[in-house]
Specification:
The complex is a heterodimer of chains A (481) and B (283).
Chain A lengths: L15 H4 L12 H8 L9 H4 L7 H9 L3 H9 L5 H7 L21 H15 L13 E5 L3 H12 L3 E5 L8 H4 L8 H13 L3 E3 L10 H6 L2 E6 L5 E2 L12 E3 H9 L18 E5 L3 H12 L4 E5 L11 H9 L3 E3 L2 E8 L5 E14 L5 E5 L5 E4 L2 E4 L3 E2 L3 H5 L25 E3 L2 H4 L4 H22 L18
Parallel strand pairs in A: 1-2, 1-4, 2-3, 4-16, 6-14, 7-8, 7-14, 8-9
Antiparallel strand pairs in A: 5-15, 10-11, 11-12, 11-13
Chain B lengths: L1 E10 L2 E7 L1 H6 L5 E5 L7 E9 L4 E7 L3 H7 L6 E2 L1 E6 L10 E7 L2 H14 L3 E8 L8 H6 L3 E6 L6 E2 L2 H10 L6 E5 L2 H11 L6 E4 L15 E4 L2 E4 H4 L2 E3 L5 H8 L3 H22 L1
Parallel strand pairs in B: 8-9, 8-12, 9-10, 10-11, 12-13
Antiparallel strand pairs in B: 1-2, 1-6, 2-5, 3-4, 3-7, 4-5, 13-16, 14-15
Helix pairs in contact in B: 5-6
The chains are: A alpha/beta (481), B alpha/beta (283).
């Protein structure tokens, strides 16, 4: 008999007033008993609509059925047959827009807490039954992956499990991409990321850090070194600025810089770590996405008394996850909505003093369907702050494009790919994640990495056939003979 | 890990090191830089590539001991390893074929200016070098600079060697005497690069400066190294580090350089304190 409770088993969390002073994880995770109880809410329905909502098609009802039976290791095996990073996905996926959105239980009441269960299974396995390395038959064929974020790691893991020799090239000194430099410790502990990456290494994935592909090696160099296929998962690139006066004053950060200092370089431990970050008594974060929430909550934890989210539309239009907005509000972040920054004012010595803004009101919907903000005449005002963090997105990094002749990009700079295979304009070169789509979610990047891994396997399997004898080529109509 | 193959003190606070980094050495060009890290809790610091040897697989860096990281770096010996060493980053210097160039180095900047002078000299350009130091003990690379220049002018702030005064005094004199340069390359403190750019502007001499702002990733991702060039925001790490000195907003760059002065002082003092504490304990 399933558990017919209309609500999810609540997630234990640090109290808001406690957690906004530390960088430890906010959500504490289910106990075994909680997990079993929640798993029993799943009806194991025949259509499995949840699976279709997952970009990597985790076999959700199957793994939940194992949890309900108390077989957590079995559940882990089912999840990792399609998802290389379950402890990460369980924490940062926007499940409300994916698997849980389609859950039948959600029609009347809350959907099954698929994300929390996934997290529980991954954490339980790491804690209790470290996974033995999977034995695969080596193909002795090399594939290169550029970037060790969610797209690259997923692609690498899938290919390694199929027997390819995969080398991942990472520009930073630690692998993980946005998982380590972008998403804060209190949402995704770095020890978890490290363990997930260690699990991939155990599958045979080799990771080379401090390698900026396009600078130290070109894609052509990689091909010369015997890599038969390349996946580019180099992520989103250069931070966008508002192009308003005062953006180069001291105390103005891009969210990328602010978060990288804190997450990758551990500035929250300064002076025990050498990289500093400056946070004033009052901080304005400009933008309404998840990155803006991360920056605001980090600033609060670093001791800022007043932290503002400054967003030019209303809360309805905010791109951030509901849960993130909710957490931010709980922690005392002040939302200045319908507020559009027009200038940053500085002190005589060049430090931020105030953010000048217009008040806005919503007009008719724009082309994207969101109501367009319009300036309220004569509404200018000054918001006194010492730090301004700009979290309005990124533009693609041109580094690979500039050093790779023939690599075609879209008008706005993202790498152009065939949607079905993630194949670029270059033979044997695939791409996915933010480098292709611009800023998106971790799981979307993982979905792209997965699709590309499949296409790379198809491509290399096909290429193994005798090129002189096209009848052997798998997938072409002549196979019928 | 990246092994220190050779270590040499050029003066009491300036050290040259050859680092084993074959992949970087294969691709490095003058004007580019690397980013390094010395220890697990350490910061990432950018240093301009002073030289490279493609066959030996080494990249040469020259640094001045100013903060905690350079202090720790300076304490490493031949055979020790650097934790992280990434590059080559930034754009290589590009010169059209000038006739006569003046290369100006200030202090440690001379170490970075030297490979530029060498490159121009190898291109067949007539090169004058003006190199300035605070006093004679601090003079570095004198012989090397002499070899790649037609004329080498040395200045010291206190007159203990060469001409007493600043590099700009020499440059101004040359320009006033009618020496025709069609390229100036200035590398050194921001204030020096600003003064040089102001001097060459009325003569219309193309002036290249090398900017070295605060930086984290060095690949364009953080934007911490942004500066205003010709009214536009540029990232030193991917658009530079070389820029047209007549277009750079030096006042803004100097202000931004002050951003973490207090924190830099704090970590350095704590570091020295720990070191001396340890030395006392050992004694």
């Amino acid at each position: 008999m399933p558990n017919l409770a209309l609500k999810k088993v609540p997630m234990p969390e640090q109290e808001p007033d406690v957690r906004n002073t530390n960088f430890r994880e906010v959500a504490l995770g289910y106990t075994e008993a909680m997990a079993v109880e929640e798993a029993r809410r799943c009806l194991n329905c025949r259509n499995k609509p949840c699976v279709g909502g997952c970009p990597v098609n985790v076999r959700i009802p199957e793994f939940i059925e194992r949890v309900a039976a108390g077989d957590f290791a079995g559940a882990y095996e089912i999840i990792t047959s399609t998802n290389n990073l379950p402890a990460i996905c369980g924490r940062v996926c926007p499940q409300e827009n994916q698997c849980e959105k389609f859950c039948v239980r959600g029609v009347k009441g809350e959907p099954v807490a698929i994300g929390r269960l996934e997290r529980f299974v991954a954490d339980w396995t790491m804690e209790n039954e470290p996974v033995p390395p999977i034995k695969v038959d080596k193909k002795n064929r090399k594939v290169a992956v550029v970037g060790s974020g969610p797209a690259g790691l997923t692609c690498a893991g899938d290919l390694a499990k199929q027997g390819y020799d995969v080398t991942v090239f990472e520009a930073f000194h630690i692998p993980g991409g946005v998982l380590v430099y972008g998403i804060p410790e209190f949402r995704l502990p770095k020890a978890i990321v490290r363990k997930e990456i260690d699990a991939l290494r155990a599958c045979g994935v080799e990771i080379k850090t401090n390698m900026v592909i396009g600078k130290v090696l070109s894609l052509a160099d990689l091909a010369d070194e015997g890599f038969e296929a390349i996946f580019i998962g180099s992520g989103a690139g250069l931070p966008s600025f508002l192009k308003i006066p005062g953006e180069n004053l001291n105390g103005v950060y891009s969210a990328n810089e602010f978060l990288t200092r804190i997450n990758l370089m551990k500035a929250y431990l300064f002076p025990n770590c050498d990289t500093p970050v400056r946070v004033g008594r009052r901080v304005a974060v400009i933008g309404g996405g998840n990155v803006a929430m991360d920056a605001a909550r980090s600033a609060k934890r670093l001791g800022a008394e007043e932290v503002y989210i400054v967003y030019r539309r209303s809360e309805t239009e905010m791109p951030a996850r509901l849960e993130e907005v909710h957490h931010a509000k709980q922690e005392g972040i002040i939302f200045r909505l319908l507020t559009d920054p027009i200038q940053i004012h500085g002190t005589e010595s060049g430090w931020v003093r105030a953010l000048e803004c217009n008040e806005m009101e919503l007009g008719d919907p724009d082309a994207g369907g969101r109501r367009r903000p319009i300036v309220k005449p004569g509404s200018q005002f000054l918001l006194d702050v010492e730090t301004v963090i700009i979290a309005i997105g990124n533009t693609p990094n041109p580094l690979l494009k500039n050093t790779t002749p023939g690599l075609e990009t879209q008008k706005w700079g993202g790498i152009a790919v065939e949607e079905e295979t993630m194949k670029t304009s270059l033979e044997g070169v695939y791409a996915g994640g933010d480098a292709v789509t611009g800023a998106a979610t971790v799981i979307q990047a993982m979905g792209a990495g997965r699709k590309a891994a499949q296409a790379i396997d198809d491509y290399l399997s096909g290429r193994r056939q005798d090129p002189e004898n096209p009848a052997c080529v798998v997938g072409s109509e002549v196979v019928e003979m | 890990m990246y092994k220190i193959i050779k270590r040499e003190e050029l003066n009491p606070s300036v050290i040259r090191m050859d680092i084993a980094a074959p992949a970087i050495a294969r691709k490095a060009e003058p004007g580019q830089f690397i980013i390094l890290r010395v220890c697990e809790e350490g910061e990432r610091i950018p240093l301009t590539i002073a030289d490279f040897d493609r066959e030996a697989g080494t990249v040469t860096i020259i640094f001045q001991i100013v903060g905690k990281t350079t202090h720790m770096l300076g304490q490493l010996n031949e055979g020790d390893d650097l934790l992280d060493f990434v590059g080559p980053l930034g754009m290589a210097s590009r010169y059209d074929q000038p006739q006569k160039a003046v290369v100006i180095g200030g202090g440690l900047g001379s170490a970075i200016a030297y490979p530029q002078a060498k490159k121009l000299h190898q291109m067949g350009v007539e090169v004058d070098i003006i190199a300035g130091f605070r006093n004679r003990e601090l003079i570095i690379l004198e012989e090397e600079m002499r070899k790649v220049s037609t004329r080498l002018f040395l200045t010291t702030d206190d007159g203990s060697n060469g001409v007493k005064g600043f590099v700009t005094d020499i440059l101004q004199k040359q320009l006033e005497q009618g020496v025709k340069y069609d390229l100036a390359v200035a590398i050194g403190p921001l204030i020096m690069m600003k003064m040089v750019s102001n001097l060459t502007r009325p003569y219309g001499i193309k002036t290249i400066v090398s900017m070295n702002p605060v930086m984290i990733d060095g690949t364009g991702m953080c934007g911490g190294c942004r500066l205003t060039v010709g009214g536009e925001t540029k990232f030193a790490c991917v658009d530079g580090p070389d820029f047209d000195g007549h277009l750079v907003d030096f006042d803004e760059a100097m202000r931004r350089q002050q951003m973490y002065k207090a924190e830099e002082k704090q970590t350095l003092e704590a570091h020295i304190c720990r070191l001396s504490g340890k030395e006392n304990a050992d004694a």
